[in-house]
Write a sequence for this structure.
């Protein structure tokens, strides 16, 4: 089932089918915010600005280079700041500019987490199965690409623990996620194995509420908000670059903070 609403960590959080112009506006704003002008693109790439496809290809090339640089700089052992439980925002923000909406894309009774790709044990997982794994908690900051943030408290299974349990190939470069609302995403393996990357089942000590990703979402302290997909339905470990919804719109893939 596809939800009409974007995740809280998407750039605007509004109804996708009703706000297509906002996507185009955000893409233009992202270009300006990055300090890249059409003139600088010509000097850097020699592209013909009268051909939009040439400009788009130039932007993608720059974005890929930026991803590679960020990946080289990423320290898999460095922890992001954590905060006291007293600072947890209850409930978490759905979006800084839109109220929480009634989103229920997942039937908890029938939900299963499907596995594919370079994983030895591909049996589906239930919520009860995940709850049976060692649980950990963290209080970290959620930072959206649009500039807003909040401090949240998350409990669940570290992604490293889960990947090791199912026999995933930890040398593969990518971990991809599909979601019930059709906003797929993916992360690099170094981030997947980071101690602050989690398959979250709870927020603030309570079961994850429907609008915030019930029953399972990714939560990582080292990525921008749009790299934390909600309502997870499947995980794939792969050697093939999987991209993601926002990445296809031109947003950076690595998106480290």
């Amino acid at each position: 089932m596809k939800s009409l609403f974007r995740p809280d960590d998407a750039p605007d959080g509004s109804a996708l089918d009703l706000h297509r112009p906002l996507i185009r506006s955000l893409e233009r704003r992202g270009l300006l915010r990055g300090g890249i002008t059409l003139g600088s693109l010509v000097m850097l790439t020699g592209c013909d600005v009268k051909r939009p496809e040439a400009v788009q290809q130039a932007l993608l090339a720059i974005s890929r280079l930026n991803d590679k640089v960020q990946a080289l700089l990423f320290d898999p052992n460095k922890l992001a700041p954590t905060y006291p439980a007293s600072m947890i925002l209850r409930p978490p923000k759905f979006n800084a500019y839109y109220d929480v909406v009634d989103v229920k894309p997942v039937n908890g009774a029938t939900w299963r987490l499907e596995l594919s790709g370079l994983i030895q044990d591909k049996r589906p997982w239930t919520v009860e199965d995940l709850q049976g794994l060692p649980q950990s908690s963290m209080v970290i900051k959620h930072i959206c690409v649009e500039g807003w943030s909040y401090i949240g408290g998350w409990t669940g299974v570290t992604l490293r623990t889960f990947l090791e349990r199912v026999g995933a190939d930890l040398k593969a470069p990518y971990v991809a996620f599909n979601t019930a609302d059709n906003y797929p995403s993916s992360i690099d393996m170094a981030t997947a194995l980071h101690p602050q990357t989690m398959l979250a089942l709870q927020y603030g000590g309570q079961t994850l509420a429907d609008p915030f990703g019930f029953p399972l979402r990714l939560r990582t302290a080292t990525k921008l908000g749009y790299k934390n997909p909600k309502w997870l339905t499947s995980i794939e470990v792969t050697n093939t670059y999987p991209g993601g919804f926002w990445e296809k719109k031109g947003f950076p893939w690595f998106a480290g903070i």
